[in-house]
Amino acid sequence: MNGARVDTLANLRRSIGHFEGGVDGLSRVPLGHDGADALLQGGLVRAALHEVFAAGGRHSPAATGFVAGLAYRLAGRRPLVWVRPDFAERECGALWPGGVGELGLDPRLMVTVRAPDAAAALRAAADALACDTLGAVVLDVWGEVRALDLVASRRLTLAARASGVGCVVLRTAAMPAASTAETRWLVRAARSSSGVEAWGAPRCEAALVRNRHGETGRWIMEWRCDDGLFRDGAAHSRRVAAAPADRPVATSVVGAGRRAG
User: Fold this and answer.
1) 54, 192, 253, 254: which has the highest count of C-beta atoms within 10 A?
2) Helix (H, G, I), strand (E, B) or coil at 115
3) In terms of DSSP bridges, do strands 217-224 and 229-232 run parallel, antiparallel, or are they unpaired?
4) What Rg do the C-alpha atoms of the chain give, in angstroms?
5) Which residue in 76, 97, 60, 41 sits closest to 217, CA to CA?
6) Crossing angle, helix 150-163 and helix 118-129, to 10 degrees?
7) Which numeric CATH code is attached to 45-191+198-225?
8) Which of 52, 33, 140, 133 is nearest to 95 (CA)?
9) Angle separating helix axes 150-163 and 2-19, nearest 10 degrees
10) pLDDT tens-place string over residues 114-136
11) How far apart are CA 179 and CA 86, in angstroms?
């Protein structure tokens, strides 16, 4: 009898450890960025909760693009559900299918859910995570949301682990708080590497500030839309205008401004 109880307790501990992310061997998907994948021990845990915070409202587009890249990597060719409260559109703008397609996502495989408020969006995301045919669920919320607390994040984590579907929470105009997230990222916009002749690949400064399985780090990450991968956003060399030889640089800039006015 004692032996059976010990076995049962051990099984329960293993199950709890699995749901809490305490055991390794979980399925991971590489991001393509060597530095990030190394710290993540191969990539993002697929069936888990991941948080992305925009470093201020003006960095919301960069954070949204970064989340789109994470969702692409997690979902693969399976459908993606993107849930957001309806007021988020007024604060951050609408999700445009054409723009989503430019980032590499297939709009035909993406379902957008507009909830009346943050609490309803949270319930919709939890319900979507129960569908194991999905590839990923994005919960996109703006501002400080009281409903999105430690208990809510645990509920999302358990739902993701049970179905095998990845969950990414995008937070804008909010401060990080206690949660069960596997990873937490702080994202801001980064300067494009391209010249004025053409648009460069989307890039951002991504700081991995929480990693349950390793160290943290910060990188300039470039999203290669055609390849569906993140790459290192190292600076590219390009020509710059030579300094004027007959007058100080500041003088030439002021003079050009006066002529333009």
Assistant:
1) 54
2) strand
3) antiparallel
4) 22
5) 41
6) 20
7) 3.40.50.300
8) 140
9) 100
10) 999 999 999 999 999 999 999 99
11) 24
